[in-house]
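Usage

Read records sequentially. Each one opens with the input sequence:
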Amino acid sequence: MITKQEFMDALARRHGAESQERICRACVGIAGLGGLGSHIAFFLARAGVGRLILVDFDTVDLSNLNRQQYRLCDIGTPKPQALAKQLQEINPFCRYDVHFQQVTPDNLADLFGECDVLCEAFDAPEQKAMLIENALQLFPQMPVVAASGMAGFASANRIQTARRMKNLYLCGDGETDIDQGTSLVEPRVAVCAGHQALMALRLILGNQDP
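and closes with the structure output:
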């Protein structure tokens, strides 16, 4: 069996001991565990983030499997529980707080109040707007890393990370949307999720520039 010390030492050799210590102390919230959120969670668990707060009110469906980190055996299972089970097999030394519920202005503080960084990973524009608006008001010192525009087969080089406000970072191409009838494919969604996960790690390490 691999011990926690062995696991952390391996990460420290890749990331640097000081950086890894900061990553291990961090808490990141992920609101929405679909194509974006499930990939963000995988990236951050592999990086050794000490605590992940996973929130979604949906169950795994067959239509999710083309772009989300779920399996056929997960169909019908609440996404937070299905995702946490896989993450435990990758990094059992991370703390996973799972919440099978919808994020609302009323429960936002209870769910994410202890986070160092909050990642917005919703599908619906109104949910995105609600989370960003309320999070920036409730947590004026907490960075929010959001996403807009990752649909279709356009070049992944169009996906970028920009700082839109003091504590708001936006990842994506800012244009393509599934509501426009555009397809969603895992490679492009995962690129955007990678931008979000990397920005979260940079913020944990004190780097505020995109």
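Summary fields computed downstream for this record:
- Residues 24 and 48 are 6 Å apart (CA to CA).
- The first strand starts at residue 27 and ends at 31.
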